[in-house]
């Protein structure tokens, strides 16, 4: 007889359930880690969340970041400046986008830097 049932893609319910198993004393941390193949640090985070926020803490949407800095229009604008041969520092000052944000986009191949010959 199952003690709890959730769909296979409902990871939040799973986290809540294993936290309850541990906190109610029904299973030890090592038993849960072995049985479900999860990390002990993950289980500790889930238990802490359950203790602080209760079961509902697993189902609230977390605050999302503000709107993305590099919108498609902004990417096009920066790419045009890169194509014109301007350096990242100058583009940063001109557009108001942080230098490391532009560098990260170049590293992730979302922007392409013109190589000087």
Short description:
The protein is an all-alpha fold and 117 residues long.
Written account of the structure:
By secondary structure, the chain is mostly helical. The chain has 2 domains: 11-58; 72-107. The protein is built from 6 helices and no strands. The mean pLDDT is 88.
Mind sketching the topology for me?
Blueprint: H1 11-23, H2 29-36, H3 40-53, H4 72-83, H5 88-95, H6 99-107
Helix pairs in contact: 1-3
Shape, per Cα inertia axes: elongated
Helix content: 40-55%
Strand fraction: under 5%
Rg over C-alpha atoms, rounded to the nearest angstrom: 23 Å
Average pLDDT rating: 88
Head-to-tail CA distance between termini: 71 Å
Derived structural class: mainly alpha
Helix count equals: 6
What about the largest sheet? none
Low-confidence stretches: none
Count of DSSP strands = 0
Order of SSEs: HHHHHH
How many domains in all? Answer: 2
Summarize this structure as a short list of keywords or feature phrases.
single chain, 117 residues, mainly alpha, 2 domains, 6 helices, 0% strand
């Amino acid at each position: 007889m199952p003690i709890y049932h959730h769909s296979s893609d409902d990871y939040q319910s799973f986290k809540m359930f294993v936290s309850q198993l541990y906190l109610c004393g029904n299973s030890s941390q090592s038993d849960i880690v072995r049985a479900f193949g999860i990390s002990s640090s993950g289980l500790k985070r889930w238990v802490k969340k359950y203790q602080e926020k209760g079961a509902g803490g697993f189902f609230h949407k977390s605050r999302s970041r503000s709107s993305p800095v590099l919108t498609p229009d902004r990417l096009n604008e920066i790419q045009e400046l890169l194509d014109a041969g301007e350096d990242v520092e100058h583009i940063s000052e001109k557009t108001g986008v942080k230098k490391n944000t532009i560098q990260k986009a170049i590293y992730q191949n979302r922007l392409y830097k013109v190589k000087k010959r």
